[in-house]
Design brief:
By secondary structure, the protein is mainly α. Helices cover 63% and strands 0% of the residues. The chain has 6 helices and no strands. The longest helix has 20 residues.
């Protein structure tokens, strides 16, 4: 394995050692929607009859949130050759529970920054 890593480094290819190598993106680097829009999306995720295309349409209204979700999903991918560019692919990779947690964390950060 050490030889293959060494060869990859010499060739200039990007590699990741493990899936935790790249930290998730920092939310403050993206123009995210306000807390109320995030809460509305969280309610949409909690709907039992969730339609992924409807979720995609709602998230595409905020380019910053869409870029954040794609960056978050790509930080979890082990391969640099297959970048995730479609939000539905990101939803499938991350799973609904992780999306819910991510939105909950963003809402919490909004609340903390509002009280500070």
């Amino acid at each position: 394995m050490a030889d293959s890593i060494e060869q990859a480094l010499r060739s200039g290819r990007r590699i990741r050692m493990d899936r935790h190598h790249t930290p998730p993106p920092a939310p403050h680097l993206f123009e995210l929607p306000n807390r109320y829009e995030l809460q509305r999306l969280q309610l949409l995720l909690d709907d039992d009859d969730l339609d992924l295309q409807k979720l995609r349409a709602e998230i595409s209204l905020s380019e910053g949130l869409q870029r954040y979700i794609l960056a978050f999903a790509n930080s979890r991918v082990a391969s640099m050759t297959n970048r995730i560019t479609d939000p539905v692919h990101a939803f499938a990779l991350l799973g609904m529970n992780r999306l819910r947690r991510m939105l909950a964390n963003l809402i919490e950060q909004h609340q903390m920054s509002a009280t500070a």
